[in-house]
Design a protein that fits this description.
The structure is a single chain. The protein is an alpha/beta fold and 585 residues long. It folds into three domains: 189 residues, Lambda Exonuclease, Chain A; 70 residues, Ribosomal Protein L15, Chain: K, domain 2, CATH 3.100.10.20; 243 residues, Up-down Bundle (Four Helix Bundle (Hemerythrin (Met), subunit A)). It is built from 17 helices and 18 strands. The longest helix has 26 residues. The relative contact order is 0.09. The N terminus is likely disordered.
């Protein structure tokens, strides 16, 4: 969700963004140019601190018309600094701008007396333990406010930083050096706002540790992938984002159910019966399967909160999603469309995708097939060795098809269902699997695979949309009406890792049994109980913690999918030199 508000289409630079530029040019670019935002405890706390001053905009009195009346004695005692008059006027939430300076700001508080003004900026933390009792970004922000006050006719020779954490005021003198530095940063920030490429990340900076956008910026990961020679010696990459999300997808499969809103929770009803409620903070996606309705009020609420609504048919075909306005970044999509027209770019991504998928298929067979199909594993190794020298996507399609044929020919060797002795006769219900088939699937394993891939393409689509990419315009997979082609690109490397693994687990542990399928000559489908059981296995796999195969830190598979979407966007924007697929060891 955008935090720039009405200033988005203005050429005036918000002074708050000047603070961000002084702190980190890359953070500034992500927030101001790409319109990215993420909360953490520090940003939420800071927003709460500013709630009082941000409620209403107030007009600053003219310098020659000040009444010298103070209507807030408590604020004067706490926040007032020396002005020529003993009874200054306190004005909160003051919006000022200057075309000459090229900046706009909402000042927390201004203390005025005669033609003198003192801006007071509130900060959430404690006074920094350094010689100036402040950091440069804070001083620059305050100096910019002072320049705006001067533009509006006031004398302004200093400002005040009020630190809520230590309840302390720090006077900041507006020196010539600080003014020159502030004007320089204003100019540099305007120049950066017109660039199309991200500034480089900070190098092992402690600033990254508490940055709410660290999981979007990925400073250590970006620097590592920019220098591929470092990949083999990774030992100290910082994971600057949660190991897994607390919120999870909410699947609604009860036909005829209606989703409504109750306070800050989703309310699920069917007729007059209340099925359940769930707090919105615990929901990352709302997945509607079949004949499930949602009220207009709830739909608007979810869009405002940035929670996508996923739509499946009754047969669980992924048919679309509803989402609010997320990233307003046209640059990444422009680069995506350019890459789709570049044979070199398309081939580079296709090689990474096919190599990742084939390697993961081979690894899954090597680990789980009994007996080990050594001959086919060797043939897969030979096929994988041909990928780097492939000259076209058509050639890669052939290699991918041959790899898949070897893989699926041995897929049954990874299955050892606990309920096999209790299964019906083979001609009416069987676990036998000889090849991949679909539309419709002809046997239980293919039905599980098709269902799982439909769930996975949803996950990849949501991840790509979160990065501002167009999931319908692919690079390896050609765009086709109704097909999220770009989502199918990174999805390939995750098919064996997520879906195939979940299928093997669901069958071998008895989570899904033969009784969960209806089979006829026309095809094979899961029943309601089978779908619920497999979704449980699939979500458990996504939530499983693993060691990231490139960056060597722990996180969930769902997080890794989102990381790959971020890295794909960074590759398209030339922030990293190559897209590297995920392969297990």
């Amino acid at each position: 969700m955008s935090k720039r508000g009405d200033n988005f289409q203005s050429n005036l630079l918000p002074v708050r963004m000047l603070n961000e530029y002084a702190y980190c040019p890359r953070l500034f670019y992500l927030m101001y140019v790409q319109d990215r935002w993420a909360d953490n405890l520090l940003t939420v706390d800071g927003r709460n601190v500013h709630n009082r001053v941000d409620n209403f905009d107030h007009v600053l009195p003219d310098p020659d018309e000040i009444s010298h009346q103070n209507d807030d004695e408590e604020s004067t005692q706490q926040e007032h600094t020396s002005c020529p008059d003993e009874s200054p006027v306190i004005t909160r939430s003051v919006l000022l701008s200057s075309e000459t300076l090229g900046i706009i700001a909402k000042l927390d508080l201004v203390s005025t007396a005669d033609d003198h003004a003192v801006p007071v900026e509130t900060k959430r933390g404690k006074v920094p333990d350094n010689s100036q009792q402040s950091w440069e970004p804070e001083r620059v922000q305050l100096m910019a406010q002072g320049l705006l006050l001067r533009e509006h006719g006031y004398q302004c020779d200093h400002g005040v930083l009020y630190f809520v954490g230590s309840r302390t005021r720090v006077d900041i003198p507006f020196t010539a050096e600080l003014e020159a530095r502030t004007r320089q940063l204003i100019q540099l920030a305007h120049q950066a706002a017109n660039e199309t490429k991200l500034p480089p990340p900070l190098d092992d900076s402690p600033k990254c540790n508490n940055c709410s956008l660290a999981g979007i910026c990925l400073p250590d990961e970006t620097r590592t992938l920019t220098n591929p020679s470092q990949i083999k010696n990774i030992t100290d990459i910082r994971r600057l984002f949660p190991i897994r999300d607390d919120a999870l997808p909410l699947y609604i499969q009860e036909q005829g159910a209606i989703i409504g809103k109750s306070g800050k929770s989703l309310l699920i009803r069917k007729g007059q019966e209340k099925i359940g409620t769930i707090a919105l903070k615990d929901v990352s996606q709302l997945v509607l399967c079949g004949n499930v309705s949602i009220t207009a009020q709830t739909l608007k609420w979810l869009c405002q909160e940035g929670i996508p609504i996923i739509h499946y048919t009754t047969g669980h075909w992924f048919c679309g999603l509803t989402t609010g306005i997320t990233i307003r970044n046209a640059f990444v999509r422009a680069q995506q469309f350019r890459a789709a027209q570049s044979p070199t770019k398309r081939l580079a991504l296709a090689k990474a995708i096919v190599a990742g998928k084939g390697t993961n298929q081979r690894t899954l067979l090597r680990r789980n097939a009994t007996p080990t199909p050594k001959r086919d594993l060797d043939k897969m190794t030979n096929l994988l060795a041909k990928i780097p020298s492939a000259r076209s996507c058509k050639h890669l399609l052939g290699l991918e098809g041959n790899l898949a044929a070897r893989y699926y020919a041995n897929f049954a060797a990874m299955l050892s269902p606990r309920n096999s002795n209790a299964a019906p006769p083979l001609q009416t219900g069987k676990w036998d699997f000889t090849s991949r088939n679909r539309r419709p699937p002809k046997d239980p394993i293919n039905a599980l695979l098709s269902f799982g891939y439909a769930l996975l393409v949803k996950e990849c689509t949501v991840a790509l949309l979160a990065e501002g990419l167009d999931p319908w315009w692919g690079l390896y997979h050609k765009p086709r009406h109704g097909r999220p082609a770009l989502a199918l690109d990174p999805m390939e490397e995750f098919r064996p890792l997520i879906v195939d693994s979940a299928v093997i687990t669901a069958v071998n542990t008895g989570m899904v049994t033969i009784k969960n399928f209806t089979t006829s000559r026309a095809g094979c489908v899961l029943n309601d109980a089978g779908r619920k059981a497999f979704i449980k296995a699939y979500e458990a796999r996504l939530d499983q913690l693993v060691t990231h195969p490139i960056f060597n830190y722990r996180c969930s598979w769902r997080t890794i999918i989102r990381l790959q979407a971020k890295l794909l966007a960074k590759w398209l924007l030339d922030d990293i030199p190559q897209y590297k697929s995920i392969t297990t060891r």
